[in-house]
Amino acid sequence: MTILSHDYCTLKKETNSVIARQGIFDTLASNNGNVAKTARSLKCSRSTIYLALKKQNNGCLKDNSHRPKNNHPRTTKKEIIEKILQLRKAGFGKTRIQALLVIQQNINIPQSTIGVILKRNNCSNRKKRIRRKTKPQIDWRFIKPFDVLEIDTKEIADKNTLPKETYYYLLRSEFLPRWQWTAIDTVTRIRFLAYSTHCDWSCGQLFGKLVVSWLRLFGFKKRITLRSDGGKEFAATFPGSFERSVKNIWEPLNVERTLIRKGHPEDNPFVERSHQTDDNEFYIPYLTLCHSKLDFLRYASWWIDIYNTFRPHMGLNLMTPLQSLFHKGYNVNKAFARFPPLWLDSLTTLPTVIPDPVTVQNHIDYDLTSVLQQTPEPGRALAANAGVLVTKIITVKENSTKKFIVVDGGMNDLIRPALYRAYHQIVPLSIQTYEHEVDVVGPICESSDFFAQDRVLSKSHAGD
Fold first, then answer.
1. What is the SS3 assignment for 454?
2. How far apart are CA 40 and CA 46, in angstroms?
3. Pairing state of beta strands 450-458 and 393-398?
């Protein structure tokens, strides 16, 4: 038996209604059932004591719901609430949910009502305030469409963003890309996407040339500024390599290359924000529906079309990027917003695969066959896929953080992964249940002696 030292209201506020009413019963028993004395000691009314006894007889000490028994005539319908929760699950905030309800279902609900619904269903979240240094100021009033483009790469296999099922499906599927290449116009938000298995300078050079050639193809002949970070995929790791790329590659194309501050992704805000949209509206709902490379490219083409021509943007006053371009007086073919999502690895067989766009500027039939020139190299395009390396598992080791599969082949047999982290498909001859990520390594005592790192493979044993 517990005798309360606090009054009833304080106890209920600090704990809950069940514990507070249980305390009433203990105090009432210590007072030999004297309701008036118990009410005075707990600083509450006698009706509170009688209500607690009534709830005890009913078998429930919790407070009753404060919701009205009869719904208000203007109460939000259940199907609309389910639609709001569905949009919130897709990653949309109150403002975009309100806009989508107006566009898709012609339903206008105040943002305050949407906020109450989200809060009532525990779906509201408080944004974290991140204090950063002041970024360089750009006077956007004098920036015209496609004067400045932000370009960046995105690692698709993001464990912190993708659901567990989608993440491991991506790692198991050899036909899905690992990297997304994005270029976005800072004025109209029109985006150009491409994909690759590797993230290297050859893919970066090719993607930049593809975007520039696409703009020249549709009549944008003025000087273009490409802004990116200082990654190796943009030849910006060392000042000398970046200066040579500017002189030999970008200046002949009438392109200015600028780098943002190191460690400040907020200097490229539009492309960074678009990556979150890719996760919430493309990869999370649709990635597991892709069962081949062709499936993925079809979904990617659909996503580019949706983003540029159908999806309204809050920063564009609920216009699509293509509508924003038309609104600014640019009359271009709608095919301009349907950039083909090319697989860059299949095009980077030589350092230069796209010539300087001299004839492209006068091209008007929107046919890319004369823009792209593919030159296969037998060493990589044919011979590299003509053989296999068969190994045998020597032993399986495991520590607190990783699991290692040691095979009888090493970097002396296949040096490409150790030399420049080349990706090779690994297929177990006996496929069982899948397990978590493993490292496939050789027997040579070198940290670079590996065939794959953080690869999801089926359960294996020594001798397989």
1. strand
2. 9
3. unpaired
Residue 301 tokens, joined? 């083409």
C-alpha 17/C-alpha 44 separation (Å) is 14
Q: Alpha helix (H) ranges present in 279-337?
A: 284-286, 293-309, 321-327
Spatial contact of 203 and 344, defined as CB atoms under 8 Å apart: yes
Q: Please enumerate in sequence order all residues whose Cβ is within 8 A of that of 71, keeping only pairs 6 or more positions apart, or say none.
A: none
How far apart (Å, rounded) are the C-alpha atoms in residues 440 and 14? 55
Closest CA to 407 of 458, 450, 455: 450
Supply the pLDDT for residue 460: 77
Strand partners, 397: 404
Q: Which CATH number fits domain 143-378: 3.40.1190.20, 3.20.20.70, 3.30.420.10, 3.20.20.300?
A: 3.30.420.10
pLDDT of residue 405: 86
Residues 352-387 as b or e (16 or more Cβ within 10 Å = b): ebbeebeebeebeeeeeeebbeeeeeeeeeeeeeee
- With 0-12 / 13-18 / 19 or more C-beta atoms within 10 angstroms meaning exposed / middle / buried, residue 324 is buried
CA 230/CA 261 separation, integer angstroms: 8
Distance (Å, whole) CA 309 – CA 257: 28
What mean pLDDT comes out for the span 127-156? 76
207-260 pLDDT, tens digit per residue, is: 999 999 999 999 899 999 999 988 888 888 877 888 888 998 999 999 999 998
Q: Say which CATH architecture domain 388-458 belongs to.
A: Beta Barrel (2.40)
* Dihedral of alpha carbons 118, 119, 123, 126, sign: positive
**What 3-state class would DSSP assign to 195?**
strand
Please state the length of the chain. 464
Task: List phi, psi (to 5°) of 154.
Answer: -135, 125
- Burial tier of 400 (Cβ tally within 10 Å: 0-12, 13-18, 19+): exposed
